[in-house]
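re: ur question from earlier - yeah i can do the single chain one, its not a big deal. heres the input i used so u can compare w yours
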Amino acid sequence: MNTRKTALHRMLKTPTDTGWGFSLPRIFTAASYQLLPGACLLCGLSAQHDIDLCSTCEQSLPQLGLHCDICANPLNTVGICGRCLSQRPTFSTVQTPLLYQYPVDLLLQRFKFGGQLAAGKVLSQLLIQHIKDRMKSEKSPLPNLLIPVPLHWKKRFSRGFNQSEIITRELSGQLNINYSRHAIKRVINTPAQHHLSRKERQQIPHNTFVAGRESQLLQGARIALVDDVLTTGSTVEALSRTLIKQRAKSVEVWLLARTPLDN
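and the output i got, formated as tokens:
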């Protein structure tokens, strides 16, 4: 690997503690990614032409495997899990290629909390390929509107960006689907999910989300909600109910990774 690619890899592997903001190191990192692609983000060796992972590292990523047809919770067989059978979610299906395990969790943390766009782009590309493969195999139509899971304005200001919006823009461009980040908004600033227990994560206030200034786009739309990780599903369930109340035709969920739950 040449010196310039080695320097890029070192920057991408060193997360920072501050929000995205406009800090010079982060701007330089983003610019370097555009100028110097081609190094695997996990091992530093030469990456594939269209994604910054080498084939060995890509093949080693934890794949979802057998899972619930609705919530994508890993199962030992095909079908629907007990939770979805006892209380069917408002969304119709969850689509994701990966499990939230090492090294996927590492890439996601660098993207979400370190502002490393290269890691987010790699995971988004894997999701895009998953969606394309699904469309070919199931011959089902694509949604006609993408909605990123919104952050409360205080959390967005603190972090400096919404990772779901970045993923959504990548999906929109690659799959040619319109998106809106103003059709729905979060009005209750719930605590950071990664600090909560599973029981606490499930206690999302029913009025957390309300219609936004572009809510007219929701009427009759087949929507894909876009987020980074799904754990209990309480956030996307609350958001799905709000979208259906706004007369969306259907809602599915697109994710970079799924956290396994105990069955």
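Residues 117-138 form the longest helix (22 residues). not sure if urs matches, ping me
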